[in-house]
């Protein structure tokens, strides 16, 4: 039995979370779900976007599912606070094409490994006389740690190239540290037999953004700093059917949090139009993290079937179904297995 902290959040967060939980119930795994609060509604009711109780629950469970939250201006970000408090230093964002989904490319499968604990999201901003500044913190330790994760993920996924993405030509000091740490880890890993076949290269982030549109097949595993990873993963989502399709893992040494890449989508909240796929795929990533590989595969295959059939798809995928109708179709396939 796994104890899972569930943080639905705001907007479409609770809608896609409800859909994913409904699907999870059809699996042969026992879960104890404990709901916790965060986000905009939570702020208006409790005075904080992320209560300590939520952090404690997430820290002490086997894994956490996070929907999405609406940002409250001037208040601390719930998700960034959680990532920090739980020590989730790696954000893994697979960009994968699924059959049946109208997208620019139909055969993409690469992974963005985003440093999740520092960079421009360190939260150190200051007002100045002229305007404001933000501190971009890049440490050797975090850069090495995230580079190691990139190589380990590459091996695990059968990939043969790891590409570092940075802007060391302009951000000479900060990305200089990132770049140097990456190449040190690359040397260390490619000297090991298991990794000796791995190609290693690097790109400036602006060129990487261009290649991602023009020639994304060149990518296998990308590793980059926090803000670049955030931007590139939304770009990647745009190549494979949009934000409704892309899940993510936030991983640390002894914890994991799983969430769609998208936000709370206030423009469609309450209309039943939210695509539950990214949240369902995030639960599949959680199952992999819990070493429930068979059930994770079953879940992904069931979703794949629904996408392929093109009968129960949400509006963003060109269909007319609601969030729950699409989830129901996935659950029906699972119950047939
Ligand atoms: P967003 O990701 O919420 O939405 C961007 C666009 O994609 C919208 O047109 C939306 O309708 C569409 N979209 C997103 N998810 C979808 C889904 N599952 N199905 C169908 N269409 C979907 O980003 P936006 O609008 O920039 O931000 C909205 C709020 O979410 C803001 O308060 C923002 O700060 C917050 N946010 C929260 C995140 C989180 O909780 N991790 C991540 C990104 C944004
Ligand atoms: Mg983002």
Automatic annotation (TrEMBL):
GO terms for biological process: isocitrate metabolic process; L-leucine biosynthetic process; tricarboxylic acid cycle. Signal peptide: none annotated. Keywords: Amino-acid biosynthesis, Branched-chain amino acid biosynthesis, Leucine biosynthesis, Magnesium, Manganese, Metal-binding, NAD, Oxidoreductase. SMART domains: Iso_dh. Gene3D superfamilies: Isopropylmalate Dehydrogenase. GO terms for molecular function: 3-isopropylmalate dehydrogenase activity; isocitrate dehydrogenase (NAD+) activity; magnesium ion binding; NAD binding. Its cofactor is Mn(2+); Mg(2+). Belongs to the isocitrate and isopropylmalate dehydrogenases family. Homodimer. This is 3-isopropylmalate dehydrogenase.
């Amino acid at each position: 039995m796994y104890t899972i902290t569930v943080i639905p959040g705001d907007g479409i967060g609770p809608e896609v979370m409800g859909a994913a939980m409904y699907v999870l119930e059809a699996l042969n795994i026992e879960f104890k779900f404990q709901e916790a609060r965060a986000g905009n509604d939570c702020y208006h009711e409790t005075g904080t976007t992320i209560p300590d109780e939520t952090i404690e629950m997430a820290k002490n469970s086997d894994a956490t599912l996070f929907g999405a939250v609406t940002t409250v201006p001037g208040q601390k970000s719930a998700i960034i606070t959680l990532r920090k408090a739980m020590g989730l230093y790696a954000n893994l964002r697979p960009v994968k094409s699924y059959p049946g989904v109208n997208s620019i490319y139909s055969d993409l499968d690469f992974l963005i490994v985003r440093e999740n604990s520092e960079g421009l999201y360190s939260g150190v901003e200051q007002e100045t006389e002229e305007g404001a500044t933000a501190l971009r913190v890049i440490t050797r330790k975090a850069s090495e740690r995230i580079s190691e994760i990139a190589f380990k993920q590459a091996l695990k996924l059968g990939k043969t190239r790891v590409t570092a993405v940075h802007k060391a030509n302009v951000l000479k000091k900060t990305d200089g540290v990132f770049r140097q740490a990456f190449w040190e880890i690359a040397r260390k890993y490619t000297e090991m037999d298991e990794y000796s076949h791995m190609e290693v290269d690097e790109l400036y982030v602006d060129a990487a953004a261009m290649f991602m549109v023009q020639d994304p097949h060149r990518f296998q595993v990308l590793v980059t700093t926090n803000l670049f990873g955030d931007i590139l993963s939304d770009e990647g989502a745009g190549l494979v059917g949009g934000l409704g399709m892309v899940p993510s893992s936030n991983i640390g040494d002894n914890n994991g949090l799983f969430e769609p890449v998208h936000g709370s989508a206030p423009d469609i909240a309450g209309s039943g139009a939210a695509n539950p796929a990214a949240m369902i795929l995030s639960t599949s990533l959680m199952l992999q993290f819990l070493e429930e590989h068979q059930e994770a595969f079953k879940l992904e295959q069931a979703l794949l079937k629904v996408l392929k059939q093109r009968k129960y798809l949400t509006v963003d995928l060109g269909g007319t179904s609601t969030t729950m109708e699409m989830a129901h179709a996935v659950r029906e396939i699972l119950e047939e297995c």
